[in-house]
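hey
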């Protein structure tokens, strides 16, 4: 199977803990023995710190995004170093797809301003015609409200892609650089358009990603193509 895993920066590098990066590297490396695996890595706290500092210095939103992209690529290098040795992460989808074809494994970060790595993962999944897209993020799925703001928020076990788009649009995620939402609006639209099976799960423990891929066992939200499932 062809698999794209979006590893949130908040999941991979909330701080620089080599053990956590090694654990992700192990899981992705093991999965790559049986599958073609593309990982897309986010920027996390460090990206936000750079973005906040540069905003105070008067940087415009595109400049802030460019800083964020730089940090996602640093994190991609770090994860790459935990697997095959340091390799410069591809900066575009065609280069990533070529690495995936050649090596069966690729790690990349951001691509262009105006989006997050959620959208990179969805676009790469569409480009390489992935069978499965997994968002390993800091929350255990997509909720009807931000679970970190609303203690009564309820998780969707299955969510039609159109409902995901609506929910993300309503949360106003196409905001400024470094903004929070379960996934960004472009990612939600690409997931809807591609119809690729998509899981959103708590990625704090990479074993959850392994189990989801290996046995289909996971706790979180499955985004289903429009018309296939009920919320
Ligand atoms: N409806 C929602 N369901 C789940 N998470 C949400 C929702 N709305 C906002 N969020 C926020 O989305 C964030 C998930 O993304 P984030 O922490 O940036 O992780 P990552 O590093 O994986 O991108 C959480 O901080 C969570 O509070
Ligand atoms: O293709 C990309 C990927 C990332 N970013 C920037 O880099 C930041 C960090 O990326 P990440 O995917 O971690 O976003 P987050 O989940 O932190 O919002 C984002 O907020 C954007 O500002 C971007 O502009 N384009």
């Amino acid at each position: 199977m062809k698999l794209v895993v979006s590893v949130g920066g908040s999941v991979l590098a909330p701080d620089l803990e080599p053990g956590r990066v090694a654990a992700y590297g192990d899981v992705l490396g093991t999965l790559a023995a049986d599958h073609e695996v593309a990982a897309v890595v986010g920027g996390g706290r460090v990206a936000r710190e750079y973005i906040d500092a540069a905003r105070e210095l008067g940087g415009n939103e595109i400049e802030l995004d460019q800083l964020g992209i730089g940090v996602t690529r640093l994190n991609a290098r770090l994860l790459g170093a935990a697997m095959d040795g340091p390799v410069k992460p591809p900066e575009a989808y065609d280069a990533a797809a070529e690495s995936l074809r050649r090596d069966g494994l690729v790690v990349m970060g951001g691509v262009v301003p105006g989006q997050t790595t959620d959208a990179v993962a969805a676009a790469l999944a569409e480009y390489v015609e992935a069978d499965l897209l997994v968002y390993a993020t800091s929350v255990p799925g997509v909720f009807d409200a931000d679970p970190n703001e609303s203690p009564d928020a309820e998780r969707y076990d299955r969510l039609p892609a159109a409902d995901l788009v609506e929910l993300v649009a309503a949360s106003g995620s196409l905001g400024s650089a470094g903004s929070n939402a379960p996934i960004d609006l472009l990612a939600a639209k690409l997931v809807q358009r591609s119809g690729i099976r998509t899981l959103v799960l708590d990625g704090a423990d990479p074993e959850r990603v392994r189990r989801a891929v290996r046995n289909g066992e996971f706790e979180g939200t499955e985004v289903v193509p429009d018309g296939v499932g009920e919320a």
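Residues 2-224 form a domain with the Carbamate kinase fold (CATH 3.40.1160.10). The chain has a mean pLDDT of 92.
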